[in-house]
Amino acid sequence: MKDLKGAGRFFAHYLGKYWQKLSAVILLTIMSTYFQVKAPVFMGHAFEDLAKYMQLYLNPATRATATRTDFNHAILNLIIFYILISASMLISSLLISQVAGRSTGTMRIGLFRKMQRMKISYFDTHSDGDILSRYTSDLDNIFNAMNQALFEVFNSVILFVGMLIMMFRQNATMAWITIATTPIAVILATIVIIKAEKYVNRQQDDVGKLNGYINEQITGQKVIITNGLQEDSINGFVKHNDQVKRTTFKGQAWSGILYPLMQGMSLLNTAIVIFFGSWYVLNGSMSQAAGLGLVVIFVQYAQQYYQPISSLTSLYSMIQLAITGARRINEVREQPDEVAPENGKTFAGIDAKINLKDVHFGYVPHKEILHGINIEVDKGQMVALVGPTGSGKTTVMNLLNRFYDVDSGAITFDDTDIREMDLNNLRDNVGIVLQDPQLFSGTIADNIKFGTPDATEEEVFAAARQANIHDFIMSLPDGYQTQIDDDNSIFSAGQKQLMSIARTIITNPKLLILDEATSNVDTVTEAQIQAAMDNVIAGRTSFVIAHRLKTILNADKIVVLRDGEVIEEGSHKQLLAEKGFYSELYHNQMVFE
Amino acid sequence: MTSLMTFMKKYRGDAIIATLATLVIAFATLWQPRILQEMITAILARDQGTVFNLGIQLIGLALLGIVAGVINTIFSAKTAQEVSADMREKGYRKIQTFSFGNIEKFSASNLVIRLTNDINQVQMVIMSVLQQITRIPILFIGAFILAIITMPKFWWIIVIMLILIVAVSAFSFTRMGNYFEKLQTTLENNNTLARENLMGMRVVKSFVQEQNQIKKFSKSSDEMTDTTIRIGNLFSILMPAFFLVGDLAVAGSILLVGSMVTTDPSMIAAVQAFISYLMQILFAVVMGGFMMTGASRAFVSLGRLQEIYDTEPELTFPETPETDLTGDVTFEHVSFTYPGDQEPVLQDISFSVKAGEMIGIVGATGSGKTTLAQLIPRLYDPDSGVIKVGHEDIKQVNESSLRKTVSYILQRSTLFSGTISHNLRQGKEDATLDDMKWAAHVAQSAEFIEKLDNQYDAKVEERSANFSGGQKQRLSITRGVIKQPDILIMDDSTSALDARSEKLVQEALDKELNGTTTIIIAEKISSIIKADRILVLDQGKLVGMGTHHELVRNNEVYQEIYRTQKALEEV
């Protein structure tokens, strides 16, 4: 129910501005329904007139008075109505295709816009696949429902009501006969839908488990091969597969039965109408011709009567999916935006120092990661953060350009709290080289000037040279115009890191944060990255998060973090002399004899 | 297609019942207008008895239709499920015979998609084939014949109607084809942009590129919207056009009957039936068209499954008797090229290792370290040369003997969902709690396992999300050592461990698995500094072999690696 309300708000928001088109669609649907339910009447008249004509004609006494004018008139009306039905269907279908297409487009862009405004914490706590599926399957489901269900729902409801009105206006007795079976059909449909839903859910669960099993086993196939576990793996599979076979059968049978059942009900209903209709006509006081017309009209109605019900039942799952989709997109829309101060202070460079003052921080409440960190960095200094995994090094980086905000304490640039600064301006001046640098689809040049789209070619070349990647780029057939994307990269992990350095150099940041790449890079490549990093660091205030000590021996200051606290601080030489934690780390990593 | 038939054969009975039920449904649908025609004649003749009889027939026919519909659905669903379960099982069994090479060629995620999505497509089509496809031609032909029998003079109306339907469909679908292709590209474009931005959100934010990315995405999204609307417009034409054609045929028939009825009064009853048949023909053609579109997708899926069935394992093991192998390893002039590659990854490698030795392998990324190690448990076969384990050519040894002898711990530690003990028993089927404890102490995993609530029965979640990288590696080492193998290969499998734990693991291995040949691939020289011998690889060639002290003195490649890792000043 809550879903339904949310979905209502969601669609009202996105469809609101199409109210004119949607009203036109409703109007056209009412018209087309009117034509649709009225057409059988003309057909009935045509037959009635034709029968009258025939009787007059076949009787030699009245042959002279026989005329087909009425018949021709009825047929003409019928044809006009048929054309109007198709025309109104066409126009409303075109309108719906516009509305569904445009509004889904707005939703898609809206989702993307929202994504750009949200806090980093959302992305850190939700899987990429889950967020992406909102762009793909959820928006798809919503589009399909709007495109197909919207018209069908209007049409079915209006058609149903229209048909009831027409039937009762034509002949109440026949109308009652036609709708007599409705309760049975509705009860049957409800039972089948409830059963189907139960078994389809069970089917989805089991299919999910089977797919999970297949995915896990085949992704880990190398372990299976090296341990000779193939037989065990097949046994586990067969168990899941048999389970899926059983539940899917039930799910498919129950959900598949609805359509033939409704078709059958329609067939049965037509039979009943023909039977009792004929009986009624023969035993009534009607003329033969009028009776015939009546039967013809109601046969047409009976054939159509179940159509709205059966199309509504077949739309049920589609609408259900769209409601779920709306809820999932709403979840994103309701996420808080990043907090950016209005009229924040601008910042042109660091004159004196950067301070972290008694910084406390945790990603989730009551689970503090940093327990009161104090770090002071003078202009132009290079500070290295060192410590074991989980000590909080990366967390410090997350705070420096406000991916997250401190819980208490403050980070200040020249004594100005960074939370008072204009957010974009702050980030313009803080450059980050991430451990796992994401590249974007486009040319190599586009990627290097990612942060400064109007950089000149010379600037791009210069940045690449400083990052030691220029020669490699020039060796590619298309040079800087080579198309790349993140999946299918021509770069090795180390070269990606160099690209990321080039991308940062070109923006000429006042403060630089380097999160070192370590995984998948051998130590020779690492030395190349190191050389590029040295180029960028030169003369700049910088934070380096070091995983291998080799890279930070020249730092002006080394800060050793452990369990969210600063335990040691000083130059390499000073720290070695202290013979503390750093010294032990250094000996374990770097000294071989 | 032929493969589908082989799978269906087993469930012939069910499929035949489903098809027979469709025939009954088609019959019921086709016969109703016939009875209606007689009914109208009876009404005109005021023949109560006939009306009653026909009425009973009509209702009987309808009930028959319902029963047949239910039977058809049940047996169609049954056949579809049985067949797709069999197809999935056959595929899975086949994949279990695959070697590393086969799996890499397909890629694991691709195989998963084939076993899930593709089979799903096939299953849906089997279901709808059994429910509809036999019925559609029967309905079409039946309605066509009955319509012509009912009103032979009006055959041309049917033909004109069909020509118009085909013309409209051809107009729409040929245009749609191009747009569908474009839709696919724009869709992929959008998804790529969304995914890149998701994964690179920190980059976007730190470079303040939100507005530019929104602009880029909006452009691509608008393109997709336009294409969707174009396709929607073409679809919009279809239904109204079909209806119009059918309706006009109906009106035209009635009009023509009007001018003939004086010479043949029975026509007034016949045209009612004729109209119903016209509508059924229209319905059959439209449904048939939609079915074809669905079926064409299933054929693609079927082809992709067939590829799995047709793939032969790249290497097979001989059915020789079980043998006990020692820990000696010999490479004789071994060269290896990955399938599809031009350049060999390993060139003319020869060396031999005595049982119980500890061997280190170093070299830059891409120098062939992992490839060399993977040849020992025969995960691939070399292009040329011979590899011997325990003095036997491994091509002559059966699979379980080799697996029993060699334990290979992969670079990326993979655990399976279940419990810790479940994962450890993958290394040794009948491992006791003591075995597990022993192995966990060697691999330094005991310290965290024994702190868990259920200890060795603690749950391992999917993607082993409840363990850190270092813990995963230690569990994976535990699984590797539990069977006390004669040969233990560790492929950079201590990379996520801190220096202290790594040292402890090595000391324990040294003490507890003294007779085991240990082969360690490492980035860090500190990991292999104590090895009896170190092999140095450079671009697929063995360029050095010796102890750390020897290599530091006389091997250039080794010296360079060492230089990048050693301390500035010797302390």
From TrEMBL, chain A:
Question: ABC transmembrane type-1 domain: from which residue to which, for each copy?
Answer: 24-321
Q: What is its main location?
A: membrane
Membrane topology note: Multi-pass membrane protein
Membrane-spanning ranges: 21-37, 74-97, 149-168, 174-194, 256-280
* CDD domains registered for this protein in UniProt: ABC_6TM_Tm288_like
The listed locations are:
Cell membrane
Keywords tagged on the record:
ATP-binding, Membrane, Nucleotide-binding, Transmembrane, Transmembrane helix
- Enumerate the spans annotated as ABC transporter domain: 354-588
One example GO MF annotation? ATP binding
Q: What is this protein called?
A: ABC transporter ATP-binding protein
* Species in which this protein is naturally found: Lapidilactobacillus mulanensis
Q: What is the lineage of its organism?
A: Bacteria, Bacillati, Bacillota, Bacilli, Lactobacillales
Automatic annotation (TrEMBL), chain B:
Q: Where is the ABC transporter domain?
A: 329-564
- Which spans are transmembrane here? 55-75, 133-149, 155-174, 234-261, 267-290
Cite the GO molecular-function annotations of the record: ATP binding
As for membrane topology, the entry says: Multi-pass membrane protein
Subcellular localization: Cell membrane
Swiss-Prot/TrEMBL keywords: ATP-binding, Membrane, Nucleotide-binding, Transmembrane, Transmembrane helix
Indicate what this protein is called per its UniProt record.
Answer: ABC transporter ATP-binding protein
Q: Which domain of life is it from?
A: Bacteria
Q: What is its main location?
A: membrane
Q: Which PANTHER family match?
A: ATP-BINDING CASSETTE SUB-FAMILY B MEMBER 10, MITOCHONDRIAL, ATP-DEPENDENT PERMEASE MDL1, MITOCHONDRIAL
Matching entries from Gene3D superfamilies are given as: ABC transporter type 1, transmembrane domain, P-loop containing nucleotide triphosphate hydrolases
Q: Which residues form the ABC transmembrane type-1 domain?
A: 16-297
